[in-house]
Amino acid sequence: GPAAPPDPALEQPVLEPVLPEEQNGTDSAKAPKVTCEERNTTGIERFTLQILNVSQDLMEFLNPNSSDCTLVLFYTPWCRFSASLAPHFNSLPRAFPTLRFLALDASQHSSLSTRFGTVAVPNILLFQGAKPMARFNHTDRTLETLKDFIFNQTGIEAKSDVAVTQEDWEGPLPSVLTKGIDWLLLFSVLFLASFVLYATLRTESIRWLIPGQEHEHQE
Description:
By secondary structure, this protein is α/β, with parallel strands linked by helices. The chain contains six helices and six strands. It has a six-stranded mixed sheet, covered by helices on one side.
């Protein structure tokens, strides 16, 4: 017989695609996966990374009507992997002056982390306009692997004379760990403790309602 129409309640929402980077040695010989509109660098003297503060929205910095590309880093200042990545990511704007580079504290932009699936940090996404196109998946996070990733995805070659300098270790992205409170972890622990306490008290109250339990207690 004819197939039954799909149940709307079972349909999954359509999410913005985030394509994982293909770790294939022949990628460099293929056509670029993302065609980026390179920005005009005339009049720009200093190419540097921009860090968003807690009041700034990433979507305000991404133009959905353009095809320019932006590399966005999700990090936390108390993550040692974020700190070790910092000097290498700080040097990228000089290696690719025609691209834009942004970074944001994932703990201050939790809604964005949920939206783009950045459950772990550091997490690097390549955007074309306002659409995420690729995710950096290498565990070896160095200037060279980052340059290879951008080239494989966009076909844009890095400047050969760029290297990590002492200034890159100093900022703008911090390479020194800072003490902080993981509010999400703290909330989870408090919620779990409250639930256990509630369950214990609830169990005791039910116990006294069971016939015969109060007599056993008196004996």
